[in-house]
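Lab meeting, item 3. Inverse folding demo.
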């Protein structure tokens, strides 16, 4: 099974009117589709060495942990403020209306660590760009930013210029 697209369900008007949400739960509910998606994400990485995989809250955790395990790398969660229990670094980034923030444990990435950043969707690129900044503030070297799907019409890749960006699906 190479084509995972049939396992991505469109939900109209979620979380607000006019948005078409890409729902991964059918993919997660199918072991063969999950395995295929994982293999395709690993193919994107190729033979690049990876020490840590960073996954963004919350849907980046699903495959981020699986990728880390397959690469024999550590997994680092990036979360909304106040969710991580130890000392954290915070990065605030712009949204369409207002700002948001993400946090990472200060000791999660060591200088020189080769880091793969993973999330489910690359949309506007704001979240991924903020995570790149956090990783680099800790001295990590970003090997790749990889995603299950990329929404080209939102041009998120433009905010990740200078990074290797890969996705399994493009819409």
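The presenter then showed the designed sequence:
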């Amino acid at each position: 099974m190479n084509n995972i697209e049939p396992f991505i369900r469109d939900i109209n008007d979620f979380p607000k009117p006019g948005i078409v949400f890409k729902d991964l739960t059918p993919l997660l509910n199918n072991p063969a589709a999950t395995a295929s998606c994982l293999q395709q994400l690993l193919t994107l990485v190729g033979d690049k060495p990876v020490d840590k995989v960073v996954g963004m809250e919350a849907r980046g955790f699903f495959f981020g942990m699986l990728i880390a395990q397959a690469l024999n790398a550590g997994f680092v969660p990036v979360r909304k403020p106040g969710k991580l229990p130890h000392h954290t670094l915070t990065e605030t980034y712009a949204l369409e209306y207002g700002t948001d923030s993400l946090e990472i444990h200060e000791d999660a990435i060591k200088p020189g660590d080769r880091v793969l950043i993973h999330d489910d969707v690359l949309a506007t690129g704001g979240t991924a760009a903020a995570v790149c900044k956090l990783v680099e503030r800790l001295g990590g070297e970003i090997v790749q930013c990889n995603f299950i799907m990329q929404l080209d019409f939102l041009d998120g890749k433009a905010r990740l210029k200078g990074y290797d960006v890969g996705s399994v699906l493009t819409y």
